[in-house]
Queue: 2 jobs
Job 1
Amino acid sequence: MLEALQHNGWTIIGPKVQDGVIVLDEIQSVDDFPIGYSDRQGPARYRLTRRANKAVFGYNVGPQSPKAVLHAARKVIWRGKKNDLKSQETAEPLPHIAFVGIRPCELKAILIQDDVLLRGPYGDAFYAARRKNLFFIVVNCGQAGGTCFCASTNSGPKADSGFDLSATELMGNDDHRFLMQAGSRRGEELLASLPARPVTEEDLKESGALFAHAVETMGRTLDTHGLKELLYQQLENPRWQEVAERCLGCGNCTSVCPTCFCSTVEDWTSLDGSEARRERRWDSCFSVDFSYIHGGSIRQTGMSRYRQWMTHKLAAWQDQFGTLGCVGCGRCITWCPVGIDITEEAAAIRSSAQQKEALDGND
Amino acid sequence: METIEPLLAEHPIFHGIDPKYISLMVGCASNVRFNAGEFVVHDGDKDNEFYLIRHGTVALDVYSPTKGPITFLTLGPGEVMGWEWLVPPYQTQGDARALDLVRAVKIDATCLRAKFEHDHELERELLKRFVPIITERLKALTIQLLDVYAPRAHKSSF
Amino acid sequence: MTPRPFRVKRTYAETDDTFTLELEPERPEEGFAFAAGQFNMLYAYGVGEVPISISGDPLKPLPLIHTTRSVGLVTEALRRLKKGDLIGVRGPFGTSWPVIPARGSDVVIVAGGIGLAPLRPALYHVLRNREDYGQIALLYGTRTPSDMLFTKELEQWRGRFDMDVGITVDRATGSWRGNVGVVTRLISRAPFDPHNTVAMVCGPEIMMRYTVMELTKRGVPESRVFVSMERNMKCGIGLCGHCQFGPSFICKDGPVYPHDVLTPWLRRWEI
């Protein structure tokens, strides 16, 4: 399959073990995949482990998501000369990229970023260009990670749409196989060129059991019922202060989050001043400067910055884009150096709001 | 010659008041005028009067030896100048100056306070009408004090 | 994200720290149109880009007119531009003052400090189409008399019999003969029918907050009081996330909002 894609001119990007984590990188052959690896994740904890079997996709998610490719961390958006201000920045030729082995939550995150970066009155031309020639081969999750909660955000463990091909890895009885499903014409064509046999009832039963097990063993859950209204009403809940006392404001959560899209622009000039460039880079709402207007920053306290991040993800995003801004991948929990858990915070705010209501009722 | 009574009744501060109170106050009221530049009261005066402005503008200043007079409020027709007469030591804060020809009704507060001794209803009626004025001034003063248009001390990246 | 090159046609100081830029496009054939209340992202070569409201006449959009205050690196670079210098312009962006929905109503424009600049296009519009509106009042407050923008035009507007102009300063020294006191004090005296009024307010956020209170006290519904908001902006087009305010991006859902939409958010700190 990889060869077929490469033959058709696709650059393959997929999971690979590097520096003790699974990253997204260019894939030359099947051997590049993290065969026989798994990952153990918890709040502020990520460890690669060895599996007993040779599963290719027997892990959950690494710190990177396709965002790193589609919405690059740094991008020159303008380059020009003082005497005419014409942009010298020529559009680089973009490779046709096939993402192989991304997860349903990651695919959902791309669709969410599409809403933000493509559907507004002004699209992001750079993102649009990157987004154009992509091929998605999603690998569904047959197991849940310690910080996952995609079942709560309706973005996994199985992808329903948005892919060209989806695969479910089945490891039963020395019979290592992939259950494939096409989601587009291109996907069907690729599938037709591969050695395959028709899907059986048994295959479906086996995969269904895997998904059910993944949902059951998912490390986290998020109660999304009335979540937007709850958070809007609880902007002054004391819990924000408690979490702020733990939060380091490092912005790890925003850089690993597959939907976080905020960026800033830096200006550079050549030493003689004859040329300048403007470079866009990821920004984080956890920095004090993020909300700076002349005279001071709007969000001066860590409390308000954590609240901004979480209420945007779980509440305001719904008003702005019609979906949650969270896909339940759990990265923000795993990669938070102090293990702050968005699901725990949401639950704590919900329960303290309920308790207060009960107390007020008794008065 | 105009009689004072209708001038009192016409002024917004006494809008809707029972005419019996106007009659009670008339004895303490007099018609006054100030030419442009003339002082109405001085900072620290024992404030035994207040003014219902009918025409012209009165500036309230604090005098600074280095900056000269700094005006913090101007009052025009329909407004009342002076509330310090309500509380001891009945002493004026700031200078008041006519900016142009000012016509006003002056109420002798010593006279009025003497009436309060016998007529608590009159006192209550006047307090009801002065407290909103004082709170409005206080609110306005708060905003003024914030100096919202002031240039920020440090230069930003913008 | 690519700015259009414009050239400085004229630049002049309005007050000690405010100035006006008049800009002409390098490619005039592309034209330029804007609605009152919209802003542009102005790029000072090599220094940076800032959102600045357009302060000219929407009917005569060129030369493009921007009035702003020098407060930092980029605005200071803009202030130092000379006739003939190049500047990058992206825009116009954002929502506009409701000059069309306000037809048939009284119009009250309340400006504080530099806030008169983004309101001037709306004022041009309602004065040009004078017969479409009821009473028109401009209430303007600044810190001191010397901080007042557009003083010549203010004189002309004061001379008109078909509009009411109230001007006040927070503090005055010397020869000032006008009102002293906060701009909110002008509202109770301004001639308009609160039940049939559209108010447009721009100034520092605190000034706007108390202005809205005073307007609602007189009976103007909050849904008919419009304010222009300011937050950090990098892109101006709803992509960079900096200007988030509650459930909206000020650059594309604002800067002009009916106040009732903002009320729940303005009453909370650090939103």
Job 2
Amino acid sequence: MPAGQTHQTDVIIIGAGPVGLFAVFELGLLNLKCHLIDVLDKPGGQCAELYPEKPIYDIPAFPVVSGQELTDNLMAQIAPFDPVFHLGQTATRFEKGDDEWTVVTDAGTRITAPVVVLAAGGGTFQPKKPPIKGIEAFESASVFYAVKHMQDFANKDLVIAGGGDSALDWCLNLQPMARSVTLVHRRPDFRAAPDSVSKMFALVEAGKMRFVQGQATGFEGEAPNLTGVNIKTPEGVEHVPADAFLAFFGLTMKMGPLEALGLEMENGLFAVDTEKFETTTPRIFAIGDICTYPGKLKLILSGFHEGALMAQQAFRYCRPGERLRFQYTTSSSELQTRLGVRDEKSKSPASISPA
Amino acid sequence: MADPKLHVTDQEGKRHTLVGISGWRVMEVIRDYGLPIKAECGGALECATCHVYVAPEWLEKLPEKSEEEEERLDDAFEVEDNSRLSCQILMSEALDGLEVTLAPGSEP
């Protein structure tokens, strides 16, 4: 879904990890439509970003399943309900309306719905920041964790830190336009693609960029304007003049963006009741690792259960005055039609018939 | 023999003595005690947020770092010669008394 548009739906889900995805299924059975927001550029959350290949052994009925297979299966399972994904975006503001909330993202997307579900697990994936004193103060002007516009780095002295593909790719891409490029990495070996590593060393050989073995430990200059980076090397501290520092150390989950929404939290999590999984803010629910209640276990299967119960109350908010009918997918022709599995010709239930 | 002990100095400099269980990962023991360790990938060698410094006298008693662990340490900060990912060290009787310090970036 293109960013920056305005939408109206039944339920907004923050977080497209396994629990957020399965919530789409439970809500879909009740004929509620969902929009999901996730900071990652793909669904699956931790399962897709942190351990797509790691085997998981405690999903009911799956003796073993990988994080990616679990995500793919959930995506197939919720496909009949046509969820709308807003990927690569972070919810930055909640606006309270009459019996509804509007969620605004950092990309300017506005979604309005009677119900919001927080399913953001351990928080929002964000770039890891080197523990350099005062680094935040430089972030607006000279410290970066991603490259948005290459032109911003033209004719600048760049220090790029990291040993993976992002660090190497940006060395190679920015070298032709930058005034100087210094790559900083803690060891002479890199896990980046061998081809990029050879190209980088060729540039170093040709005197077109530098490689310093070490780790950035401090900044020079008056924030937010950097004038140099101090690098701890096996030989001592080396000072490298720089206008910009680019750090590529992977992603980590942070609660900061959710805390900034101003909703009531308890020890960094959202306290919920165990009947409806609603937070202390009406119409805002929390399920999965991000919620807390007596006896809470951070298991994917607990998040699935929490989503099923949440959906009941979400229905009452979304369809006031309508009767909630609890039905089974094994017997309900209505549910089977929603799932697209009903055999219309025979008009008979797909499985169990009443005794 | 009694369960192996593990000494952990947290990011604030406070030393804790934990009772480990042979076969458990050091990361799991630290997490089980509720000490501040992020360990967000749960031992899949995908995140480097269980980074610890091992006391020098223990370094040689540990199993060697795999290439994968060395590569993953590239995503940690303030990496030293005694840096290890605590999800890659299994507690055992031979490691009774192991001494580690939680590194910057391992806090939740």
